[in-house]
């Protein structure tokens, strides 16, 4: 699900600082584009961590509710798709224990089937991914 969160970008001496009020976190970048990308990455990272911990993600604040600290601050939105972020960045592997009939195991081993790959392929097919 794609969501847009407000961010506040402030210029410092040699980079841009970005504050993400809904998560109460900061990031930074060498320019505005990188600051926005770093904000997206920070939101994605903390968001999937919250999902893993079964914590609810904050609802995005209204852009008009976000206050600037300095007149030169930029208040804008950055979009994040938590599913897509997880798919691209969460590459941990998890061990699953499953059971299959002995005759099927015998045939699969004879055919040199990679059980992990076959399970991944089957799950992707079942989930239409």
The main β sheet shows up as: 4 strands, antiparallel
Annotated CATH architecture of the largest domain: 2-Layer Sandwich
| Strand arrangement, major sheet | 3-2-1-4
Distance between the termini: 15 Å
Mean pLDDT: 94
Q: How many β-strand stretches?
A: 4
CATH class of the largest domain: Alpha Beta
Structural class computed from helices and strand pairing: alpha+beta
Sum up the overall morphology in one term.
Answer: elongated
Query: In which range does the helix fraction lie?
Result: 25-40%
Give the percentage of residues in beta strands.
15-25%
Characterization of this structure:
The protein is an alpha+beta fold and 129 residues long. The protein has 2 domains: 2-89, Double Stranded RNA Binding Domain (2-Layer Sandwich); 93-129, no CATH class. It is built from 4 helices and 4 strands, in the order βββαβααα. A 4-stranded antiparallel beta sheet has the order 3-2-1-4. α1 crosses α2. The radius of gyration is 21 Å and the shape is elongated. The two termini are 15 Å apart.
């Amino acid at each position: 699900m794609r969501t847009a969160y407000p961010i506040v970008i402030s210029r410092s001496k040699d980079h841009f600082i970005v504050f993400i009020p809904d998560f109460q976190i900061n990031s930074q970048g060498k320019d505005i584009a990188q600051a926005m990308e770093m904000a997206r990455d920070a939101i994605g990272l903390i968001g999937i961590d919250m999902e893993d911990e079964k914590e609810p993600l904050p609802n995005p604040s209204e852009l008009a509710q976000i206050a600037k600290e300095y007149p030169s601050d930029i208040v804008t939105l950055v979009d994040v798709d938590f599913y897509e972020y997880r798919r691209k960045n969460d590459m941990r592997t998890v061990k699953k224990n499953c059971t299959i009939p002995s005759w099927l195991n015998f045939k699969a081993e004879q055919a040199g089937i990679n059980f992990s790959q076959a399970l991944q392929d089957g799950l992707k097919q079942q989930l239409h991914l």
